[in-house]
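From the shared-data thread, chain only:
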Amino acid sequence: MKAFPDDLVRDLTKPEILGLLEIMHYSNDAQTQKDFGHILGLVHSTFSFPNVLGGVILSTDVDASDLKGWDVTTTQHWLLNESYPEAWLKEYYEQKYYQCDPVAQTIATSFGFTTTWAEMIGVCTPAQRVVFDRAATFGMVHGVTASCFDEDSMWASFMSCAGCAEGEDVRLKPVVSYIVQRLHDSLVVWSRLLRRDGREKFTTQEREVMRWMSVGKTNGEIGSIIGLRERTVKYHVSQLFMKMDVHNRAQLVSEARKLGLLIAV
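Structure, as tokens:
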């Protein structure tokens, strides 16, 4: 078991620590777009970031040479915008800034990172600098972006927080990184489900039943573990068979593993 990173909270205020605890609490059960949006809202309201955006991208869809694959119509990715200016996002896509944005390039082609925008500006080309200059006209001068990468599924998750005062980006950099790491697995599962059929299809109880089925528990045993009647568990199992289009427990577990739905119990 990993030790809690004490240095994470050393420079936080009491309200920020309480907010971080709330974010950690909700991240444990986040499963839907609404859940993730709520968490991004907490990041926005807890820390000094007026602008917060998160999302996921399937790295295999991206041409690393010029990122043309970031075109919104062809690349598998989902954005959850909490408070980025809509006018900026419109300009970003219309002008195809993603093709030269060093932050977007790093998200799509790295194995995870955390950086302040100032650090990125220090090493970018003049063409890449245009993206930051344009963002600054929308009040987004200082910011932090963090990402995580899942090698098995090739999905990358990320969060960008911007608009803070100078120095706040450095102070809150480890916090942004930690939150993305906490959300990553759930974001990947959500993204793979959306890619499969475009909808969030499993309830919380169905997810729990699925997890315990994967380790060979019977309906009765699952009911005792999660506090449900055996007939209720049986109903959830039948719903899972229908939703996954399978005919037995072995097929269901196999399909769930392919989708990355099973978390260790």
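Residues 168-197 form the longest helix (30 residues).
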